[in-house]
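cache lookup: miss for this entity combination. No prior model stored, computing from scratch. Input as submitted by user K.M.:
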Amino acid sequence: MIEVLYFAWLRERVGERSEMIETGAATVAELVEELRTRSEAHALAFSDMTSVRVAIDQDLADMNASLAGVREVAFFPPMTGG
Amino acid sequence: MTVSIQSSPFDMGAEVRSFAESVSGAGAIVTFSGLVRDDDGKLTAMEIEHYPAMTESAVEAIRVEAMERWSLLGAVIIHRYGRLEPGEQIMMVATAARHRSDAFMAAEFLMDYLKSRAPFWKKEIGPDGENWVAARDEDEDALSRW
């Protein structure tokens, strides 16, 4: 099981802060493909991947990153701190 | 305290004084504070969301990198989250060095990285609705100079 977290407009579009996902996805990109099929809201949230960033177990990563042994995956838009 | 992620306001004067007292041998302290801009009344408030489990470690990693790249005697970062009103302080950085060049450059580096690599997201709330602030290409480009 992987805990998937959403922040900012991804959270709003999906309509959830987090969800536990049973997945066989090997990479983040494969996980995104699975998430897209969960609901129309998920499909909309992941419709433009140029504005989606990912962190794996609280470290920034990219879409090709492996999910082996990963417990938490967070999706969010480009950061706007400072 | 070198990194603080907090919802409460901070007293910049007091923070800078205590930072100055904590570093010895400094010849220069550079401070920067970011405020919620009052966009001619178009902004009622700014809501800052963050990723609690990641924020502090991500900000600390950026701080450590600045400490390694420049000859710094210390660096502190305070960043707020939650609902802020126009004119309120969002965040501050302070850097201390023997000479001003290191302190200035490290402060700029910290600001560029906090903007694009620390997990914060700003939402502007105005009389006409709410709007997530979009990251600008310039913010990403700014990282390439380091």
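stored under new cache key. Strands of chain B lie at 3-6, 28-35, 45-50, 72-80, 82-84, 89-97, 120-126, 129-132.
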